[in-house]
Amino acid sequence: MLAAPALALAAPVQAQLCDGSSLRPSADGRVLGHLPYGDVPADELGEAPDGFAVRGVCRLRRDALPDLGRMLADAGADPATGGTLRGLSCHRSLTRQQDVFCREQPGDPADRAMSVAPPGHSEHTSGYALDFAVRPSNGCRDAEACMAASAPYRWLVANARRYGFEQSFPAGNAQGVKWEPWHWRWVGTAANAPGAPRARSLFARARTEFPADPAVVTPPPVVPTIRPPEPPPPAPPAPTKRGRRR
After folding, report:
1. CATH 3.40.1080.10 fits 3-209, yes or no
2. Maximum CA pair distance of the chain?
3. Which residues pair with 144 in a beta bridge?
4. Does 42 score more than 70 pLDDT?
């Protein structure tokens, strides 16, 4: 029953461009390379822990918040993190996504879409995705190479999967989206975790055709090995009677 709303959100939709025109989906349902994601109802959003957002408030689906809270607590207690993970951008409404898409440098929308999804086609509007930032920034402007060289990013790569988060757009991804080491989406720690079926349904196509890396991977089921019974040990030879010497 949880999958139906997610599939409805993922129905192909047109995207409004910055000049007011609309762009129809291509034959595969994508717009400028991006898959469709509708906006999440406001009553399904909750606030991330205090102090997490770099600016304002970080809102995500309530299903993702417990795992995010655990991850932030564990990262804060681990000296290997080497800094603090903060939230640069979390849920975005369709209107907000339109603003972000159109504030990029003017030019070909396809070029712009390599780094910002058009409205209706961003994982941010799903409420499951967020962009991390590292603080202190040490002069890093939240750019790819700078972010990837940081100790907190390495901590995410090593540990985020344990909390249900995976990196949506790794370097060289088949979707053709720019590498975004800061962008991670929540799919739950296991397929049957609370809220995970809906998130995994929404991202099913993305996870199949354009795999995340690192990705949350469900371990294969353990199949017991049935061994044939051991053959019984051979019976000891019967004692032979020896005659008495005379």
Report:
1. no
2. 123
3. none
4. yes
